[in-house]
Design brief:
InterPro entries: Peptidase_M1_dom (IPR014782), Peptidase_M4/M1_CTD_sf (IPR027268). It comes from Chryseotalea sanaruensis. The chain is α+β, with helices and mostly antiparallel strands. The protein folds into two domains: 385 residues, Immunoglobulin-like, CATH 2.60.40.1730; 157 residues, no CATH class. It has 17 helices and 33 strands. It has a seven-stranded mixed sheet with strand order 4-7-2-1-13-17-15. A hairpin with a 5-residue loop joins strand 1 and strand 2. The protein is elongated, with a radius of gyration of 32 Å.
């Protein structure tokens, strides 16, 4: 019985040990998948990495009178996987606006007296006559034979007539139409804006065609429905797209314009060519005066604009007769892409002054930190109350008042959104993460780079996005209502913005500036970008690459910042001021004795300040048994002599918030000078709750402050200071802004 009891106890302890996860333990299979031939332990693509491909040839026409889009696409799907496929999945994202969509059925919210009518649409009450969603009119194979298909909300399954083996391709076509929606009413990513003053529209077409889902080594088919928040997982491919619109419309699009002679005037063609070799300022291809003139016209003819795009994961376009168009070339190390902007007169004077400049700045800074922007252009299109990204093109807000004036806040917001959305060309349009599963991999990384770009190119804006200080209000909130960064987009609720954008962006700022240092961080970040350009990375690939390329173990950071809702709250619990007693050694007893004139007893520190002076203590000679088998000895007198007169400070720190972080301590000396000590987060590895550390200073200290420059998002400034007699408001003042 005793033996069985011992075995049972041992088994119990073994289970507890297996389940225990300290903050510095390595991430295991519950957090990171086991490396394999497809994705290596270093974070690089494996030797047998593969990904699917889908090429598109599309003809689309937009009716400016009815706002109906009609399209036909031919898709060539390449099966590069080791699996044999018997069906394909496509995304029908427009079905989010179909009657009884899952989004409409699950929208929540209540009403109160004096609720605005526009609120009804946001809580799932349909007050519009609009009928949304795709009308699929044909799905056929290359022989024009109908294919069986099944529509499940925002997804469509296509049955293959024969199994599609590795290395084979399948060609099929889809015909469809749908009525574009008023984005003011539905607040979706595409749509149109109507201008009552002149009776014109600005169209921004997004998720406008049925698109292939991703099939990968990680989860097979991407099978999460489009509910509105979680964005897109898409395969790379080449696109040939012909867009038919009224002949007085200007089209902005993914891809490079193939037929400028057919759609532009001779003068516009000359300006377009000039812009491609002009690096110092934008060239106006369509001026404001020309756009105003066209607002009053209504062309009866049509024009077809043709665009080709290579190796992109999506395709979007915009068009209007109201568009002003300016562009200039950008000089990168190996490329000269075109930065350009399309906007109605309602965007001026702000857009003519700032949009293309912001596109240029973004391409330059992002390229330096990752790889040279590989596409032929990056385009910013003005669209009210919006910020949305697609390959080579994005839709951005920032509209001045009717008299052309605008506030500093609007200026900062407009520059911020242009930088952010153009930056999305890198994350996720090229470094092609799954936005529906891992929002932070594109939004978080991009928010970090947005902040880096604006602080570099627009220092006067004092941009605080993705800085630790800006994150404190969220981090100090109710943690029971929070979700970890790693939660999927549709499950984060009101935390989607912080968890998807600013918290991961802030985490990268902390890694770069405080944990790793800019040099190591930049090398590792660039390595991740180049490894996964035009591929499909997962969270583990980012985590592993950042460590592999820097030799910095960051599992403690990923575990705390990404997988939990803990926050940083380091309490400066105690500071003891000490000095070594002046002593001499009794040659017979080998123990020190106090010189005459020394204090008879040591002073005791005041727990709240330094008013009692230093506490004196004795350093005795090292006993022989401390040396073990060593025969050499420390010169105890020399040690005491080196410390004689020095100020020794014993600091106790407590981890109140749960996150382990580096400790930054600022010392203010009696003469007014200051000094900062930086201690790696590993100081917590043996005790995650409380640590004691001793510091030796030449000068007398009058103030000790933890996290003086808001580097680690410490949520409680009132426990970071010693002496403790300072009022909280004064503590905050001590922290540098």
């Amino acid at each position: 019985m005793k033996k069985l009891l011992i075995i049972a106890l041992f088994a119990s302890f073994a289970v507890q040990a297996q389940n225990w996860k300290g903050k510095f333990e390595q991430l295991g299979p519950n957090e990171l998948p086991t490396p394999n031939a497809y994705r290596s332990g270093s974070g690089a693509p494996g030797t047998e990495y593969w990904q699917q491909r889908a090429d598109y040839v599309i003809d689309v026409e937009v009716n400016d009178e009815t706002q109906v889009l009609t399209g036909k696409e031919t898709i060539t799907y390449h099966n590069n996987s080791p699996e044999t496929l018997t069906y394909l999945w496509m995304q029908l994202d427009q079905n989010i606006l179909a009657d009884n969509s899952m989004t409409a059925q699950t929208q929540q919210g209540g009403l109160r007296d004096s609720s605005a009518t526009r609120i009804l649409g946001f809580i799932g009450v349909n007050t519009s006559d609009y009928k949304g969603g795709y009308n699929i009119t044909a799905v056929k194979d290359a022989a024009n034979k109908a294919l069986k298909y099944t529509i499940n909300n925002t997804m469509m399954r296509i049955e293959l007539p024969a199994p599609l083996k590795k290395g084979e391709k399948f060609v099929f076509s889809v015909d469809w139409n749908y009525q574009e929606y008023d984005r003011m009413q539905f607040s979706q990513r595409g749509g149109y804006e109507f201008f009552p003053e002149d009776g014109n529209y600005v169209y921004t077409f997004a998720q406008w065609f049925p698109r292939m889902c991703v099939f990968d080594d990680y989860e097979g088919w991407q099978n999460k429905q489009f509910l509105g928040t979680g964005e897109f997982a898409l395969a790379f491919g080449d696109y040939k797209v012909r867009i038919t619109v009224p002949s007085d419309h200007i089209v902005a699009s993914t891809g490079w314009l193939q037929n400028p002679k057919a759609v532009l005037t001779a003068e516009q063609q000359e300006r377009y060519a000039l812009a491609q070799r002009t690096f110092d300022k934008p060239v106006f291809i369509v001026t404001e005066e020309e756009a105003k003139k066209k607002e009053k016209e209504r062309a009866t003819k049509k024009s077809t604009w043709e665009f080709h795009a290579e190796n992109v994961r999506d395709f979007a376009f915009a068009h209007s007769r109201k568009f002003i168009w300016d562009a200039q070339a950008v000089k990168l190390a190996t490329k000269t892409p075109l930065a350009q902007s399309f906007y109605p007169k309602e965007g001026n004077p702000l857009w003519a002054k700032e949009s293309t400049k912001a596109v240029k700045n973004t391409l330059e800074v992002y390229s330096a930190r990752t790889f040279d922007y590989p596409y032929p252009h990056a385009t910013s299109v003005h669209a009210a109350n919006q910020g949305m990204e697609y390959p080579m093109i994005c839709f951005n807000f920032g509209r001045p008042n009717k008299d052309g004036t605008y506030s500093d806040r609007l200026l900062q917001g407009m520059i911020g959104v242009v930088v952010h959305e153009v930056g999305h060309n890198f994350f996720p349009m090229i470094i092609n993460s799954d936005e529906r599963q891992s929002t932070w991999m594109d939004e978080g990384l991009n928010t970090f780079m947005e902040g880096e770009t604006i602080r570099d190119r627009y220092p006067a804006l004092n941009y605080t996005t993705a800085t630790p200080k800006s994150m404190i209000p969220f981090m100090k909130g109710d943690r029971t209502q929070m979700r970890p960064i790693m939660a999927t987009a549709d499950n984060q609720g009101r935390n989607h913005g912080p968890n998807g954008y600013t918290k991961p962006g802030t985490g990268l700022t902390i890694l770069r500036n405080t944990v790793m240092g800019p040099e190591l961080f930049d090398k590792a970040f660039k390595e991740y970008a180049t490894r996964w350009a035009f591929k499909h990375p997962k969270p583990a690939d980012f985590f592993r690459t950042m460590e592999d390329a820097s030799a910095v173990d960051l599992d403690w950071f990923w575990r705390g910042w990404f997988f939990t809702t803990d926050n940083t709250d380091i309490e400066l619990a105690e500071v003891k001021w000490m000095k070594v007693k002046s002593t001499q050694v009794d040659p017979e007893k080998k123990t020190p004795k106090t010189k005459q004139g020394d204090l008879a007893s040591a002073k005791s520190n005041n727990p709240t300040d330094f008013s009692n002076g230093p506490e004196e203590f004795t350093l005795i000679n090292t006993p022989d048994n401390f040396y073990g088998e060593f025969r050499s000895r420390i010169n105890d007198d020399d040690v005491r002599k080196k410390l004689e007169g020095k100020n020794i400070y014993q600091v106790k720190l407590k981890n109140v918030g749960g996150l382990v972080m580096p400790v930054i301590i600022e010392w203010t000396f009696k003469d007014g000078s200051k000094e900062i000590d930086r201690i790696p987060a590993e100081i917590w590895r043996l005790n995650e709750n409380e640590v004691v550390k001793v510091f030796v200073k030449e000068k007398e200290v009058v103030n000790v402050l933890v996290d003086p420059n808001f580097e680690i998002a410490d949520v409680n400034a009132t426990n970071n200071n010693f002496p403790k007699k300072e009022e909280p408001s004064k503590v905050d003042q001590l922290k540098k802004n």
